[in-house]
Design goal:
It contains 14 helices and no strands. It has 284 residues and is mainly α. The radius of gyration is 19 Å and the shape is globular.
Length: 284
């Protein structure tokens, strides 16, 4: 499970580096660069793996994934910039919870007792993460999720990713991990470039001034997805995603060490509970 652990670590490192970059550039430049500078590494991954047979139904899935991901990754970067890492990353734990909800809405599948316990742990963890608000009232920790814009945006990201997770799996089955990733990371920055030109205060100048940091961001992103694909080849997807979500603990520690974030005594136990909830849902 070394690859899964590295995936988890790079996920947290990339999040911390995004937060650092946002000190001197903007959301749209960072979002574009995360994909654009990942592509060369993923192209090498494709050349190493080989080009697979591609089924015609792959293309609609790719378009759907791109459409949702353009929004989701923008919100992801914006959430990291708006709020502490310890109040954003843990809320990605809601992705498997939303998957349970969408399964119930679409397929009328109800979670078993283990899945229900996982939901309870995730919600309890979200409460504990905001426990410093408890003196303001019993429901204040939950109310803080609504008031903390980064947490709220990350919840929306988790909801979108609960949909794209299924689309990603579909696209991989209709092609291959390396082909899907390389094509996705080629098209994403092309589609996103007009957003940069229209919405970024500095436009393309913002890329040139921050080029070394943005290249490093793309490198981290490429390593993250490559390690995830290598891990999935060797272990059950549920184990890999469960270990990847353990990256929230690294994110909380990075927030404390590098950004002076407080309330570690609440946020580490809360994140640990949420991570346990993710594991129970995935294994159920």
């Amino acid at each position: 499970m070394l690859y899964a652990f590295l995936c988890s670590l790079f996920n947290a490192v990339q999040g911390a580096w995004i937060k650092r970059l946002l000190d001197h550039t903007d959301t749209y430049i960072v979002t574009w660069a995360a994909a654009a500078f990942s592509f060369p590494f993923l192209l090498l991954f494709l050349l190493w793996s080989g080009i697979p047979d591609i089924q015609p139904s792959f293309w609609p899935g790719l378009l759907a994934s791109l459409a949702l991901s353009l929004l989701a990754f923008t919100l992801y970067v914006k959430a990291i910039g708006l709020s502490p890492l310890s109040l954003t990353f843990p809320f990605l734990s809601f992705t498997p919870l939303f998957l349970l909800l969408t399964s119930w809405l679409i397929l009328r599948e109800l979670p078993n007792a283990q899945g229900l316990l996982g939901i309870l742990l995730i919600v309890s963890g979200a409460y504990i993460i905001n426990l410093e608000k408890l003196p303001e009232g019993f429901l204040s920790p939950f109310r803080n999720i609504y008031q903390e814009r980064g947490s709220l945006l990350m919840l929306l990201v988790a909801l979108i990713w609960s949909v794209t997770a299924n689309i990603d799996k579909y696209c991989v089955l209709k092609s291959s991990p390396s082909f899907y990733l390389s094509l996705f990371y080629l098209i994403f920055p092309i589609l996103y470039l007009p957003v940069v030109l229209l919405a970024s205060p500095k436009g393309l100048l913002g890329i040139g001034r921050n080029l070394p940091g943005l290249v490093l961001l793309g490198t981290l992103g490429a390593l993250l997805v490559i390690f995830q694909m290598l891990a999935i080849r060797m272990a059950l997807v549920s184990y890999v995603i469960g270990i990847k979500r353990a990256g929230m603990l690294f994110s909380i520690l990075f927030g404390f060490l590098f950004f002076g974030e407080k309330h570690l005594k609440y946020r580490l136990p809360g994140a640990a509970l949420m991570m346990g909830g993710v594991a129970l849902i995935l294994l159920s």
